[in-house]
Each structure stands twice: as structure tokens, then as C-alpha cells.
Amino acid sequence: MNKYIENLHWRYATKNFNPEKQVSKDDLETLLEAIRLSASSYGLQPYEVMVIEDPKVRAKLKPAAFGQPQITDSSCLLVFAFNTNVDEHYLEEFIKNNSETRNKPVEDFQDLKEMIQNSVLTFTEEAKHNWASRQVYIALGNLLSAAADLKIDVCPMEGFNSAEFDELLDLKSKNLKSVTLATVGYRSETDQLKDALKVRKSKEELFTRI
Fold first, then answer.
1. What is the DSSP track for 122-168?
2. What distance in Å separates the CA atoms of residue 163 and residue 64, rounded to the nearest whole number?
3. CATH number of the domain where residue 13 is located
4. What domain range is 47 assigned to?
5. What is the pTM of this model?
6. DSSP letter for each residue of 4-69
7. Which is it for the CA torsion 116, 122, 125, 127, positive or negative?
8. H-run or E-run covering 110
9. Are 36 and 47 in contact (CB under 8 A)?
10. Angle CA 41–44–47, to nearest 5
């Protein structure tokens, strides 16, 4: 079996982490870089990720995640939050970053700028938030894949009170709204699912070949 596919079979949404085993700084930076390099619509990356290692902060957040143990037992908690204010200023900064990164004049990106102005910036606030939150999940998927490749466990989580997280982390002041979490670390030997076979649809059920 291809090693990458083998690692995807190995990964699962770990519920019980070993609190004594920590992800190394280098491996954590690799995972964060995988998130940073994720695809997003127009490359806009309308989100930020809170990297929370402080055990005191995670203990405060735990009740807002219904007391789930992985919040504090994992090595690190990642809070994915979308930007609620993707506006003309956000676009100007994006174009500036393109210009500086690729060492080209701002004018070279005028067509891209107008394309975004005529699409994303015309969305209603609700549509814009839905669009931004979907970009978050692309980044989350990249994290899961990269972590599996390093044999690091991750549990993606939607079971939390977003409003409480936003308040505790003061996300509103940063124009951010939490949408999903990921706990990162190493599975406990007591986790009942660690040796379970992965259950998925068959290829025949999942794919329509045309």
C-alpha cells in the first residue's frame, strides 16, 4: 500500500490523548506551515488560527467545549477562526502582499483585484461568512493530512460554544469568529478506537466515473 494512503488509514479523530507526550516544536511548526500553505479561494486566506499551548488558557476554554478531555490532554489546541471583515482594506493588503512577494508592481494585480471586488466583496455578510468558513475547512483538511504523514494525532472538533470561545479569546476585537477546533498530540493507549479499522463508503458508492 502507498505510504501516504497507509498513514491516512492510520489516522482517526483521537478522543483520548496522552498528556505526557508532547509534539516537538519542529513538528508543530511543520503542521502550522502546512496550514499556511493550504489552498483558499483566490488565495485570500480569510481566517486566522489561534495556537494555544498554555494549559491555563485551555483549562478556561474546556467548559466551553463541554468538558471534552482532549482540550487539555492534547499537546496543543488550534482554534480556526474566519475573518468577519473581508473588505476593501483587506483586499488592498492582499494585493500588496502579492506585489511584495512576487516582486511585481501593484498594477500587475489589477485584474485579480477587480475579480475579487466583483465577486467576494459583493457578497452579503451572511454569504461572505459562509464562504470564509468554507475556506477554514480546506485548511483543516490540510492539517489532518500533514499530521497523518508525521504520525501525529489530531481531533477536529465542532462540539464547542463558539460565542464563549470568541469571548474568552477576545476574537471579536480582531474581527474573527471561531468556527472549528483541532487538538494536536499523541493518542493514549487507552483510546478504544486506536486499533479500529476505518469505516468509509466503498469506491463504488462514493465515486461516479463519467
1. GS-HHHHHHHHHHHHHHHHHHHHHHHHHTT-EEEEE--S-HHHHHHH
2. 9
3. 3.40.109.10
4. 3-206
5. 0.96
6. HHHHHHH--B--SB-TT----HHHHHHHHHHHHT---GGG---EEEEEE--HHHHHHHGGGGTT-T
7. negative
8. helix 110-117
9. no
10. 100
The residue written with cell numbers 512577494 in the block is 101
HSE (side-chain half, CA atoms, 13 Å) at 87: 5
Q: Which residues pair with 192 in a beta bridge?
A: none
3-class SS at 97? Answer: helix
Let me know if 86 is exposed, middle or buried by CB neighbors in 10 A (0-12, 13-18, 19+). Answer: buried
Query: What's the confidence (pLDDT) of residue 65?
Result: 98
Number of structural domains in the chain? 1
pLDDT along the chain (210 residues), means of 10: 92 96 98 98 98 98 98 98 97 98 98 98 97 98 98 98 98 98 96 91 97
Nearest 5°: phi and psi at 181?
A: -125, 165
Grid coordinates representing 35 are: 496550514
Cα 32 to its chain centre, rounded Å, is 9
Q: Are 130 and 41 in contact (CB under 8 A)?
A: no
Reference 182, options 83, 81, 61, 80; nearest CA is: 80
